[in-house]
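tokens incoming
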């Protein structure tokens, strides 16, 4: 008899995080494709089976063992009070690299200035349980209503709203004012506790986590190569970030070296003109797929 094929069932978020998640997996080496009406993506790894769920329900299905690994936000793990393994934090989102924020907002013209001013009021949100906990910790009694969407509209019908924001643009567009932050949330890679005890599945999950984190780390960095004359080498090495250890190789042409280093993307624009003025030539920068510490 042949040995049973080992497969890890993973959940991918459908909705706002879908495209950025697929892109992250692509940069980690996993190519995922899915039809517009399908909930079962294909992936170029025969040991993985994918299914798509809303991020809001992902942690419940991981806890129940419907899937063994999933990607969802910290907010929904807390909202569902899910008993799962948080394998790692993955700082990526649909539009920015900053954590998303759940904020308490009111109309700009409202007289409400602080959380305590909502005493006895009504607040609409999709994040009901966490919002109730937030007000309970503040000792403020409010009625928290579940919102099915278009929550910004309800801010002028009720006392306020608790809404998710990355850039704040939607709140500003609706002339709303933030008075408190309820929580910050980043995507998390989570695992079912029973699957985590299985040696093969745990190794597979940890391998995926390593590659995903490497892809995220690479998105903040670039590779830099250049040719440097011997008389400029020490000056140029002094310009490079002190925490980095560049690779220096002798070129076939006597008196020249090739220097290569990994930089933060934000350092590149200021550093390249300095390197050029110091005597570097043939300067090349290139994107990275993965950076594994």
């Amino acid at each position: 008899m042949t040995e049973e094929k080992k497969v890890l069932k993973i959940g991918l978020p459908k909705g706002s995080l879908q495209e950025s998640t697929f892109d992250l997996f692509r940069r980690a080496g996993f190519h995922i494709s899915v039809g517009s009406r399908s909930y079962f993506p294909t992936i170029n790894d025969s040991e993985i089976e994918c299914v798509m769920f809303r991020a809001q329900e992902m942690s419940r299905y991981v806890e129940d063992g419907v899937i063994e690994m999933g990607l969802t936000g910290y907010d929904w793990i807390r909202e569902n009070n899910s008993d799962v393994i948080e394998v790692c934090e993955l700082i990526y989102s649909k539009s920015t690299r900053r954590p998303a924020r759940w904020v308490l907002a009111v109309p700009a013209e409202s007289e409400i200035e602080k959380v305590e001013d909502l005493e006895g009021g009504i607040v609409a949100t999709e994040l009901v349980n966490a919002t109730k906990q937030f007000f309970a910790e503040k000792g403020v009694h409010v009625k928290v209503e579940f919102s099915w969407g278009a929550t910004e509209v309800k801010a002028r019908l009720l006392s306020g709203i608790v809404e998710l924001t990355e850039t704040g643009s939607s709140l500003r567009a609706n002339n709303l004012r933030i008075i408190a932050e309820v929580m910050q949330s980043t995507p998390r890679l989570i695992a079912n506790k029973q699957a985590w005890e299985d040696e093969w599945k745990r190794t597979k999950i940890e391998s995926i986590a390593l590659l995903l984190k490497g892809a995220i780390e690479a998105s903040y960095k670039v590779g830099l190569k250049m040719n440097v004359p011997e008389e400029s080498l020490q000056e140029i090495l002094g310009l490079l970030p002190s925490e980095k250890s560049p690779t220096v190789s002798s070129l076939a042409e006597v008196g020249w070296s090739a220097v290569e280093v990994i930089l933060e993307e934000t350092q590149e624009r200021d550093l390249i003109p300095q390197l050029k003025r110091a005597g570097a030539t043939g300067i090349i920068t290139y994107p990275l797929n993965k950076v594994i510490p």
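note: Residues 222 and 266 are 9 Å apart (CA to CA).
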